[in-house]
Design a protein that fits this description.
Layout lengths: L5 E3 L2 E3 L3 E3 L8 H10 L5 E2 L5 H5 L3 H6 L9 E5 L4 H14 L3 E6 L4 H4 L11 H15 L4 E6 L9 H11 L3 E5 L13 H10 L5 E4 L5 H11 L3 E4 L9 H11 L8 H18 L2 H16 L6 H7 L5 H18 L12
Parallel strand pairs: 3-10, 4-5, 5-6, 6-7, 7-8, 8-9, 9-10
Antiparallel strand pairs: 1-2
Length: about 350
C-alpha cells in the first residue's frame, strides 16, 4: 500500500502513525516504550490543563514531561479561555513542544463540565476564537485540533469546523469517528471521517477510532482518504502495534509477534521508566491497575494478574514476572516469534 509521508506544518513525521493522548496511560513512561519498539511517527502528552502548567503544578509538570528519545511530540491542552490557552501555547513552545494540539474531542464529564474537550463542539464560534488566539501565540509552531464528529447526531459540525480551522491556519485535524454522546460505544463511523477529509483542501486529516490491528489501520486509510492514523485504546498493552502497522502498510507483511519474554520486558521497561520519572510507589499503583491491558496479550495469565494486583514494591513486581515466566515455561507453550528487545 502506498502510504505517503505525513507533514504537519514544519514537522515531518517518519511514519503517518500517531499515539493518542490518553490521560493516565500514554504519559512519558509508556511513550518511551512505544518509541523503542518503532513505527510511531508522533506522540502526544496527556491532556494538559493550561492553569496547571502555567502555575508549575507538580502533577501537570509530570504529565508535560518531555524526553529527547520521544520526538517529535505534541502537547495537548483543553479549556475554553482564549487568553489562558494562548499563554499555554507560549509555555509549550518554550518547553520544547514540536506541535500544540487543542482538545475538542474528549467526551469525559470532568472535562466537558469545565467547558473543555468536546463541549466546544456545541460552541463552534467560541472554538474558532480560541484557535485564532492559539495560532497567533504559536507563531510558526504548528497548531492541530482533535475533534469528534459532533456532540450528537443532530449536530455534526466537524466538517464545517475543519474547513474554518484550515482557513485560520490549523496545520492538521484529527477526527474520532464518533459523537460525544456515543462515548466509545457503537462503531467508528468511517464515512464521518471521510466527510472531514472532503471538507479540507490542503491540510492532512488523521483518522482515529477502533484501530486495533494493522488491517484496521489500512482500512481506515483506504475508506476515508485520511493521511494518518491515530491509535488510542488499541495501543494499550501492545506497544508494538505501531511497528506492526507500519510494516504492514509499507511492505504488506506483519512481523512475528513478540515472544512472551519480550512482552514481559516491555512491562519491565514501562515500570522502570515510571519509577525513575515518578517514584516506585507510583509505578506499583499504576501496574496494579494497568496489568489487565498487558494481560490481554499474555493469555493465559491469571497468575500474573493476581500477583501484580497485590504487589507493594519493584522487587515484588519483578518476582511476579519471573514466577509467571517459569509457570508458562513449565506449560511448554510454543514460542510466538521474535522482535527486538526494548533497550
Amino acid at each position: 500500500m502506498d502510504t505517503p509521508a505525513l507533514q504537519i506544518g514544519r514537522v515531518k513525521l517518519a511514519t503517518p502513525l500517531l499515539l493518542a493522548p490518553m490521560v493516565g496511560y500514554c504519559e512519558l513512561p509508556y511513550r518511551l516504550v512505544v518509541r523503542a519498539t518503532g513505527g510511531v511517527g508522533l506522540t502526544c502528552t496527556s491532556l494538559l490543563c493550561p492553569q496547571g502548567v502555567l502555575h508549575g503544578g507538580r502533577g501537570s509538570m509530570a504529565m508535560a514531561a518531555l524526553d529527547p528519545r520521544d520526538r517529535p511530540v505534541a502537547m495537548q491542552f483543553f479549556g475554553d479561555d482564549p487568553a489562558l490557552l494562548a499563554d499555554a501555547c507560549r509555555w509549550a513552545a518554550d518547553a520544547g513542544a514540536d506541535i500544540v494540539d487543542l482538545n475538542m474531542g474528549c467526551p469525559a464529564d470532568k472535562i466537558t463540565q469545565q467547558a473543555g474537550g468536546s463541549d466546544l463542539l456545541r460552541r463552534p464560534a467560541d472554538a474558532l476564537r480560541i484557535v485564532e488566539r492559539m495560532i497567533a501565540a504559536l507563531g510558526d509552531l504548528p497548531l492541530t485540533a482533535k475533534l469528534r464528529l459532533g456532540w450528537d447526531d443532530d449536530s455534526i459540525v466537524a466538517p464545517w469546523l475543519a474547513t474554518r480551522m484550515e482557513q485560520l491556519g490549523v496545520a492538521a485535524i484529527t477526527i474520532h469517528g464518533r459523537t460525544t454522546q456515543m462515548q466509545f460505544s457503537g462503531r467508528c463511523r468511517l464515512d464521518g471521517i471521510a466527510a472531514v477529509v472532503s471538507a479540507v483542501s490542503r491540510i492532512p486529516v488523521v483518522g482515529n477510532g477502533d484501530v486495533k490491528t494493522p488491517a484496521d489501520a489500512a482500512r481506515m486509510l483506504r475508506e476515508t482518504g485520511c493521511r494518518g492514523v491515530m491509535v488510542g485504546r488499541g495501543a494499550l498493552g501492545q506497544p508494538w502495534i505501531f511497528r506492526d502497522i507500519w510494516s504492514y502498510l509499507s511492505t504488506g507483511e506483519t512481523p512475528p509477534p513478540p515472544t512472551l519474554a519480550e512482552k514481559c520486558q516491555f512491562m519491565r521497561e514501562h515500570f522502570a521508566h515510571h519509577a525513575r520519572l515518578h517514584d516506585e510507589r507510583s509505578a506499583v499503583n499504576l501496574f496494579r491497575k494497568q496489568i489487565s491491558w498487558y494481560g490481554k496479550y499474555l493469555v493465559p495469565c491469571r497468575v500474573l494478574k493476581d500477583r501484580v494486583r497485590a504487589i507493594n514494591s519493584a522487587t515484588e513486581f519483578e518476582a511476579a514476572i519471573e514466577e509467571f515466566l517459569r509457570w508458562r515455561e513449565s506449560r511448554q507453550d510454543p514460542p510466538s516469534g521474535t522482535v527486538a528487545t526494548v533497550v
